[in-house]
Amino acid sequence: MARKYRDQSPRVCAPAAQAGIACRGAVCAVARRGAAWRGVVQPCAWLHWPAARNIGDQTFRQGIRPVATRPEDGVSVQALADSFARIAANVETVLEGKAEVVRLALVALLAEGHLLIEDVPGVGKTLLAKAIGRSIACSVRRVQFTPDLLPSDITGVTVYNQEHGDFEFKPGAVFANIVLGDEINRAGPKTQSALLESMEERTVSVDGTTHELGVPFMVIATQNPIELEGTYPLPEAQRDRFMMRLSIGYPGVEAEMEVLEVHGRGDRVASLQPVADAQQIAALVETVKGLHAAGPLRRYIVDLVRATRVHPAVELGGSPRACLALLRASRAYAAAQGRDFVIPDDVKALVQPLLAHRLILTPEAQMSDHSPADVLDELLGFVPIPAESGPQPRAGA
């Protein structure tokens, strides 16, 4: 049921004035368009943030641990950036003209996230997943989701071994470093839910026994948003477990000409050589975990996600899991650029792929042809960000 809001037109509300802070609520930036969504004026909903301050790049550096010298990692941030660029270049040899998509997919890998690729047939969804798997010397399993696929095909099953006179566990498709789930929305809800535990807990429970999954572990699922006949839409709980949703899109003219030139001669994916292995990826993941995110940066992430919950066009906003995903991905995004600290631009670059698929709009907003991307663009425009004053040397450097 749509939520009701009181009409409140002042630009500065009483609680904000009493607190001595600037009102950054939706009344200033969104209320005048609220009627298009809900037929009423949206009040500020008490979205109050301190006014943005020019706190500078030094703020984002404060409290940094020296990532490059930690003995438990053995991987510097610059080495991580070099490895990231090497893997990305390898994947881009078979996916022409999609450098940003490749970059975001690898960010999800280093942030220990899972990836949902949603697009029309034939644009390279499966190709991207296979190219990432071929670029890393690790175990890769592909599952073609169909209506008759069973949960045990995903998780595994315990069978009786007559030769040994005992029961033994036969691992399912999820026991791999990279799991490609093709057309995930073609399987039934029970089979889809078999992925839930493994995606969040990185364990699988079969017949009362819990089995640990390998490191790294990533699920790359694809689905076709156009052909809906015979499909089962992913429930909110499962969509929320995917760190990112990406759309590859059609290539440009030059890129499509390159596709004819390169792929017209044979399967280029099969000829890809690994440029990293599972152990190296695990070390990169540990380095990402240690990257510094300053307090104002973390507050910015929280403000963005909390704002999605009170926007007039949103029925269901981002969860605390979305906050964590945005922080982890921002660290990986920063590390890929050779930085050992996160800045607001890292967060802003990831808001759309990380949050759009988690938002459920109200019926009124959907009828008005608004999209989650519109909402997020709106929020990026009025949620204040910690400002930068340019790079400054680290204390003690």
**Strand order in the largest sheet:** 3-6-9-1-10
Oligomeric state of the chains present here: single chain
CATH architecture of the domain at 67-288: 3-Layer(aba) Sandwich
Runs in which pLDDT lies below 50 for 5 or more consecutive residues are: 1-56, 66-72, 389-397
What CATH calls the topology of the domain at 67-288 is Rossmann fold
What does this molecule look like?
There is one protein chain. The N terminus and C terminus are likely disordered. The protein has 397 residues and is an alpha/beta fold. The strands form five sheets. A five-stranded parallel β-sheet has the order 3-6-9-1-10. A two-stranded parallel sheet has the order 2-11. Strands 4-5 form a two-stranded antiparallel sheet. The longest helix has 17 residues. Among the domains are: 52 residues, no CATH class; 222 residues, Rossmann fold. It contains 17 helices and 13 strands. Helix 5 crosses helix 6 and helix 12 crosses helix 14.
